[in-house]
Amino acid sequence: MVANEALNSIPALLARNVRLHGDLPAYREKEFGIWQSWTWKEAAAEIRATALGFLALGLERGDHVAIIGRNRPALYWSMVAAQMCGAIPVPLYQDAVAEEMAYVLDHCGARFVVCGDQEQVDKVIEVQDRIHHIEQVVYVDKRGMRKYDHTHMNALADVVAEGKAGHYRFDAELEKRIAELDYDSTCVMLYTSGTTGKPKGVVLSNRNIIETSKNSCEFDRLKAGDEVLAYLPMAWVGDFIFSMGQAMWAGFCVNCPESATTMMTDLREIGPTYFFAPPRVFEGQLTNVMIRMEDAGRFKKWLFHRYMAVARRVGPAILDGTQVSAGDRFAYALGNLFVYGPLKNSLGFSRIRVGYTAGEAIGPEIFDFYRSLGINLKQLYGQTEASVFITQQPDGQVRSDTVGVPSPGVEVRIAESGEVFYRSPGTFVEYFKNPESTASTKDAEGWVATGDAGFFEEGTGHLRIIDRAKDVGKMADGRLFAPKYVENKLKFYPSILEAVVFGNGRTMCTAFINIDLTAVGNWAERNNIAYSSYQELAGHPQVYQMIKAHVEEVNRSVAADPMLSGCQIHRFLILHKELDADDGEMTRTRKVRRRVIEEKFADLIDALYAGKDSVYTETEVTYEDGRKGSIKATLRLEDAAVAGGAAERMAAE
Amino acid sequence: MNLQDTPQDNPMTAEGYTTPDGRKIGGVLMEMRNITLRFGGVKAITDISFDIREGEIRAIIGPNGAGKSSMLNVISGFYVPQEGEVWFRGRKRPPMKPYQVARQGIARTFQNIALFEGMSVLDNIMTGRLTLMKSGILQQAMWWGRAEREETEHREKVEKIIDFLEIQHIRKTPVGRLPYGLKKRVELARALAAEPRLLLLDEPMAGMNVEEKEDMSRFILDVNDEFGTTIALIEHDMGVVMDLSDRVVVMDYGKKIGDGTPDEVRNNQAVIDAYLGVAHD
């Protein structure tokens, strides 16, 4: 690395990468069945031409450029091109309906919108009668776009071509604007998914992104030659850090899948060395493996179970580099030959050096499964306001129940209320156009409230998160109510996709359960249970029986913890529809919106507490294209046995 | 080839029209003149005439047993009518084998899906390119010279179609394992692979749910829009037909009872009677 070089913006990092790794692949995208790739040199040329094209269209300093679409090199390049012009990229969730998009587009005041395809353009046009500041729409995929009014619309390829053609006119201006960028200029603005209320625009500076990327790359020794798969929403801070910040800092290659549905095949073809996925992806893969093993022949099944037992016993220890006997090492090597190697290969995890999961709690069995295969899966804890990293697990100190030690450069303290606070170079600048929220989240000394309750484990110094601070409550008799704790335990069962527990201020806890259609569907097939719809399967008596057994098991495990024994579930129901972001029940990052669900399904909650056996309900649903409909159902309400011991002891004390 | 090479100018070829949504429809691509088709003593089609114009979406509708599929089979050259003439691209078409019709630029899909179940989606679509391949059996078997170059070219075209119809995720899946709606899409892909001038769709929406129908309608419109392919389709679902097509031929008991824009057809008394089931003498 050249010393005393001003690496204070993404465009500066790009220029450095061209110099250091010019001929290494920087971006790949699978298109027309083939991985197309671009070296740093080629990518930089494209980005520069895009920036020149943006100047030709009249992009000004400080403008916001909305970016909407699935992960594609062209969209990442548009973000860097916008930065070069002194503008601020604002990636949006591509699966948001027009209504949600309207709020963000309006709030950031975007003049330019870059869309991935016709679907996104249509949504932008739909909201344009209300939002008048959008002047230019640029689209990547030309399909279906010929008939649109192009007076304020351009194909990105044409913008790039114009940029190339007109470079004599704009070169000087572009150089001037790039030179103006410094550590304090805004790198990106990302909207929080908003578990409560409206999304907030988090302003992150070059300092935030680059310092964080630098620290985290050093922490895990990420370098040029590493490979990531960019498949998580571009609007999410994680993708921006992994596919933009860290990729630019370390100079590694970003691979974009062909489409959302081919992600698993593409993952396998690329074999990333650095991989991030939310727990549900790992859960889904494990469920798939287990379902397919059920269908395998007897010998294969025996081999699988025999060697998975070995892996569970010694795998994590080998991964952590602790002492393991020669015999066990030999058995593990055999297992690697017969089972782990081929399994990892078919999952696309053969080359993983560093894997992370975050966002939700991951089931210990799931976590251990991957670790025992020799996949270095770790946990981290972070949020948009911190440019992701607050704490993370160092190699060799990995456990499923902690989120690790503070990341390099990050200070963490626990307030008296139990809430976790942090301060770091990655701490956000402000919420856009929202000084009140900025002030209430970040204090004068730069400490940020996470909204999560947690504590440091004695001895190890690892942070453990209990729950969202505002979700933790008290039951009517004063016992602690921590819904997430119980929900996570429920969600560790493959049949349960989501769970929502109620009980704040009440005498007992109740729960809504969402079944996992893949797992339960397969189970139904195996047990000769016929069903014609999600709703029918969810209401099937045998499914109820199975879920009831799970709930009771969870109750026993919750009862073992005297502090939380009040959170046992007395009654539950299985919801007739999947909780969905389109209906506002979840955020786009698939976190449950508790308040919305409480309001929307108030009738069901009342019925649970009124002790009824069944309840009739009508629910409004939103289809993908934004139209509304309703589904009617009569739901069964079920009692679950509660493990009495601990609860009574508590009461007696 | 035993094509009759006597081009005759068709008086209607010159003019075209513009659709309500602003698409330019060209001259006559195919014309059926007084077609009568008999199976023994049964008259499947009686004296029907209509034309299909360059770039339009033309529907043939009618109740069960109206003779729609027979009509499509006449267009595709599978049936040879006893009376009447088929004109294609300004020439009278002599009776010909289906592969000859395919070479002329006509491709079709089938009502009861006719794909190779054991072959992958990709291979199935590649078969659609067969009439466009020029290398000989020996070259292909030895994977030598032109065969290799050709396959690369054809694969490129096929991948564009896969991308267009959004079936990348099933590229390598054997067709037998696909659900019905996707099979229909693969069949459309195979027909498109032949780069047809005229695409015949036999009940493209049959047996589909609402969502699949919407997807298929979208694809049909996009094919017409992107590739400029002329499309003739048979369909039961009146709603779909009225939304998709530029002009509609209505058949009943082997006779043509209506022909015109969807609106004209909708208000045609004979058509209403046929669909509401007025007693026939």
Automatic annotation (TrEMBL), chain A:
Gene3D superfamilies attached to this UniProt entry: N-terminal domain of ligase-like (3.40.50.12780)
Q: Name one GO cellular component term.
A: membrane
Q: Is the keyword rRNA-binding in the record?
A: no
Name the CDD domains for this protein. Answer: LC_FACS_bac1
Q: What sequence ranges are listed for the domain AMP-dependent synthetase/ligase?
A: 15-431
Q: Which UniProt keywords apply?
A: Fatty acid metabolism, Ligase, Lipid metabolism
Q: Which GO terms describe its molecular function?
A: long-chain fatty acid-CoA ligase activity
* InterPro entries the record matches: AMP-binding_CS (IPR020845), AMP-dep_synth/lig_dom (IPR000873), ANL_N_sf (IPR042099)
* One Pfam family cited in the UniProt record for this chain: AMP-binding_C_3
* PANTHER family listed in its UniProt record: AMP-DEPENDENT SYNTHETASE_LIGASE DOMAIN-CONTAINING PROTEIN, LONG-CHAIN-FATTY-ACID--COA LIGASE
The name of this protein is Long-chain fatty acid--CoA ligase
